[in-house]
Specification:
CATH class of the largest domain: Alpha Beta
Structural class: alpha+beta
CATH superfamily of the largest domain: Doublecortin domain
CATH topology of the largest domain: Ubiquitin-like (UB roll)
Low-confidence stretches: 97-129, 220-227
Distance between the termini: 62 Å
Number of helices: 5
Strand order of the largest sheet: 2-1-5-3-4
Radius of gyration: 19 Å
Mean pLDDT: 75
Length: 227
């Protein structure tokens, strides 16, 4: 091709994005190409929908130093970034520890507890994690996904211990799991796939608008079928 011919489009880049301030979000993979995304703003709009962000994503940051990305050209193939709205960037040191890593990953996948891994949902099933859990009285943190194996029996004490480790309630250990109508769940057989629950400590269940404030509208309409 002559020097006056059309320049080749840059190759597609594969990146993983995490929700700002959510150590339990497993990450969402994106393939970024010039054909699919014409502008940085268009990419951010897609990210907002795909990661079920409680607020519109307007900023991307590097996880270790919090450097802000401003163009699609800033994205590196194999890179991992933090998606945020207008709130301040929250460093991911604790998040990488939750993912079983000592430092941010480059090309390898994080080592997760298989009982808690939730694969990124397809666009037609946003917000439909097998189970999603709110923290009692917390209207700042979105629900975290909880995937429980169907092939083995669920030991309730083990589940409560896992929830205690993952939720870090200000009141301490998780003592019960409640439905949004405040009724308590006492056995794994009572948990319904795709439903939302609240992890509660020794304190009383706090009836708050968890769904209205922490779950995107398209997900809320799906969840209201059982509230």
């Amino acid at each position: 091709m002559s020097s006056g011919g059309l320049a080749l489009a840059p190759p597609a880049r594969r990146v993983v994005l995490y929700r700002n301030g959510d150590p339990f979000f497993p990450g969402r993979r994106f393939v970024v190409s010039q054909r699919r995304f014409l502008t940085f703003e268009g990419f951010l709009n897609e990210v907002t929908k795909s990661i079920c962000a409680p607020l519109a994503v307007r900023n991307l940051y590097t996880p270790r130093h919090g450097h802000r990305l401003t163009t699609l050209g800033d994205l590196q193939d194999g890179g991992r970034y933090v998606a945020a709205g207008s709130e301040r960037f929250k460093r991911l040191k604790e998040f990488w520890n939750h993912l079983g890593c000592k430092r941010p990953l480059r090309s390898s996948s994080p080592t997760l507890n298989p009982a808690l891994v939730v694969p990124p949902p397809p666009s037609h099933a946003l917000g439909c994690f097998p189970h999603s859990v709110f923290r009692n009285g917390d209207l700042l943190s979105p629900p975290f996904p909880l995937l429980l194996p169907r092939s083995s029996p669920l030991h309730w004490d083990t589940l409560l211990a896992t929830l205690t480790e993952k939720t870090t309630l200000s009141s301490g250990a998780v003592h019960q799991l409640c439905r949004l109508d405040r009724t308590s769940v006492s056995a794994g057989e009572e948990l319904l796939s795709g439903h939302y629950y609240v992890a509660v400590g020794k304190e009383e269940y706090k009836k708050l608008p968890y769904m209205e404030l922490l779950v995107p509208q398209d997900s809320t309409s799906r969840a209201l079928r059982y509230v």
